[in-house]
Amino acid sequence: MAQTYTDSLTNLAGVLEHVSNQTGEVVKLLTMITVITTPLMIVGTWYGMNFHNMPELTWRFGYELAIVITVLSTVATYWWFKKKRWF
User: Fold this and answer.
1) What is the domain count for the chain?
2) Domain limits for position 59
3) What value does the mean pLDDT take over residues 3-29?
4) How far, CA to CA in Å, does 31 sit from each of 28, 37, 39, 46, 53?
């Protein structure tokens, strides 16, 4: 009977370890999504504040520069994750 309980507890520990590993992978994926989309959210919230004295509003290529910076920072973040082999 003690051997049966020991086997049951060993199996239960294996199942809990598997569930813990799956949870870690889900958290890792959600973290990557959050970090990759953060530059997009920062620029979106910055331009959503409706300031009147934003210097880039009077620049000829102000919005284009914001788009380029946003895309470059997003691509750089994605590349960094690829380099670290998180994908």
Assistant:
1) 1
2) 2-83
3) 82
4) 5, 10, 14, 22, 35
